[in-house]
Structure formats: structure tokens, C-alpha cells
Amino acid sequence: xxxxxxxxxxxxxxxxxxxxxxxxxxxxxxxxxxxxxxxxxxxxxxxxxxxxxxxxxxxxxxxxxxxxxxxxxxxxxxxxxxxxxxxxxxxxxxx
Length: 95
Fold this sequence. Notes:
Blueprint: H1 22-30, H2 34-48, H3 51-62, H4 75-93
């Protein structure tokens, strides 16, 4: 999600969540696949004997949830943006 001054902000996802949206929010913030973040979390949990679960719970408590009014990175929004771009490209080539 982009803040008011154009900076990225870390927020928990409302749409792409399995538990609390922490992994999806982190993935969106860093621009990586959410599956990679989830796999990394599982590996960290296994290696550290469960400290990853504690880190997830802390992140759940301190990372704010994205607002209902402006869901960033929504799949429907991305499809609309792609369709709008396609329409502009067709208009340019038809001239």
C-alpha cells in the first residue's frame, strides 16, 4: 500500500490471507511471491524451534490491517489496470 506522501507502507492484507494477512502484506511490500514468504516462515519456525510463530504473532499485533476503502494490490484492480492499458495500446495502433 502506498502512503499519502507516496511512500510504501507495510500493512496486513485483507484479501490474500490465510491467517492474519502478515505474509501477504510482507510479500506485497517487498514485491515477492506470497508463497515464498510462507515457505521462509515455515523454515524459520522449524529451524528456531517455534520462534517464527512468536515473530508472526508479534507482527500480527503491530502491523496494521489495510483499510477497506483502498485495498492496494487487489487482483480486480490489477485486471482493470491491465485492461485499460490494453485498450490504450489498441487505440494507438488503430490510428
